[in-house]
């Protein structure tokens, strides 16, 4: 078993986002920051052929007031079969008037593998976040992916996606959660144009948006999720 950690911190300065901390151990790697308008983009990946043998991955970060951080996956990641579950945790704090975008690449869970992931985000007043998750399991794979978002000391979202090893369903599943201003009419129009994917769109208690997309192939779901994310943000990805 190996432990692998990554910690990021970003702050705003003169209308730009500065990534002041990138600290990692083990197999996790992060790129240098790339400027996208007022935002900074970090690409995260890991060494090796995939996650296996009880590997544990932990990511954490803070986005300070005035910053806009985009954290994207480098490539699809395989969770390989083995007797011990692979675990992944992520914890983020998004301060007042800051913005965080987490853009996942597909996680491919092989038959005989077990994957347990948990993401927690704490939003301060005026903070915004957009989260995507993508997973494709082979028959015989077990997975549990929990997403918890807190705003003002209470839960704004608790979502758990779970498949047991003996479940017959083997579809690819994508999730999009948007906390902050978003155009739900544009999301509906975009969903109508996505072929080969089943999409459900709903509003959460505070007016935030939750989307689930399912399809036979992971790349069709990925394409639909990216189109929905862009449409819901009004094409403002990477802007301030």
Give the SSE order as H and E letters: EEEEEEEEEEEEEEEEHEEH
- Are there runs of 5+ residues with pLDDT below 50, and where? 235-240
Mean pLDDT across residues: 92
Portion in helices? 10-25%
Task: Describe the protein's topology.
Layout: E1 3-13, E2 16-25, E3 28-30, E4 34-36, E5 39-46, E6 56-63, E7 68-73, E8 77-79, E9 86-94, E10 99-103, E11 107-109, E12 114-123, E13 128-137, E14 142-151, E15 154-163, E16 172-179, H1 184-192, E17 197-203, E18 209-215, H2 218-232
Parallel strand pairs: 1-6, 5-7, 6-9, 7-10, 8-11, 9-12, 10-13, 11-13, 12-14
Antiparallel strand pairs: 1-2, 3-5, 4-5, 13-16, 14-15, 16-18, 17-18
Helix pairs in contact: 1-2
In brief, what are we looking at here?
The protein has 240 residues and is mostly beta strands.
